[in-house]
Design brief:
Blueprint lengths: L1 H39 L3 H37 L6 H44 L5 H47 L4 H6 L1 H32 L3
Length: 228
């Protein structure tokens, strides 16, 4: 009788252990689907790639605006150097190219704004997902990388702001010269403006250097951020 009772106790123990094992296995299996979607929801690569696309558009738009501005300055210099046989026609072309340059400039500003909005989304998402990193060292490393990337992006914005200031100054000078020449488009008027023309070309040279700096910083950022 005692042997039978012992057998029943052992059987109950085995059943209890078996139930615990089954519950444990089911918990592990059921936990996998809940973890897998979380691991698959990271949008970092997609968002970063979108930011790179917008940065590429800024580079292209900036180069197009720079080429357009060079064309405008070339026409201006053609007038000021007296190399044109049709001053009135060249003057009309100059005004047309100034308008075209302004349109290109507005496109650059639009592309920069779009890039800025995307950068804000990327940095905000990055900052938020850093908090989900459980390992302290990895979390701190990601924070450092985010800070470095933001600083690099800030350098781009600073360079673009400086270039924008040079554009404003150049356009103001060019507008003054157009107003001057509008009623004095002749050899004497051009000669009287020659010293100011030299200053304008210096302004243009400074601006082109600022644009090159901005594009170089942006290209460095794109190459450093792009997935290989």
């Amino acid at each position: 009788m005692r042997s039978h009772e012992t057998s029943n106790v052992s059987r109950a123990s085995y059943l209890s252990i078996g139930r615990i094992a089954i519950i444990f296995l089911l918990s592990a299996v059921l936990a996998v689907p809940s973890i897998a979607p979380a691991l698959g929801q990271n949008q970092g690569p997609k968002r970063t790639e979108e930011l790179i696309k917008r940065a590429d558009r800024v580079v292209q738009s900036t180069r197009e605006a720079q080429d357009q501005l060079r064309k405008t300055i070339d026409i201006y210099n053609s007038i000021m150097q007296g190399s044109s046989n049709e001053l009135r026609k060249e003057f009309e072309n100059l005004q047309k190219e100034i308008n075209n340059t302004q349109k290109k400039r507005e496109d650059v500003q639009k592309k920069f704004a779009e890039m800025g909005q995307e950068a804000d989304r990327v940095f905000a998402s990055w900052h938020q997902e850093i908090e989900a990193i459980s390992n302290t060292q990895v979390r701190d490393l990601s924070r450092t990388r985010l800070m470095d990337t933001r600083q690099q992006y800030s350098a781009i914005l600073m360079a673009s702001t400086e270039a924008g200031g040079e554009v404003d100054a150049l356009f103001a000078t060019l507008n003054d010269h157009v107003l001057f020449l509008g009623y004095d488009l002749n050899a004497a008027g051009i000669a009287a403006l020659s010293e100011e023309a030299a200053k304008l070309n210096e302004q243009a040279g400074t601006l082109f250097a600022e644009i090159d700096t901005t594009v170089a910083k942006l290209n460095d950022y794109i190459q450093a951020t792009r997935s290989q």
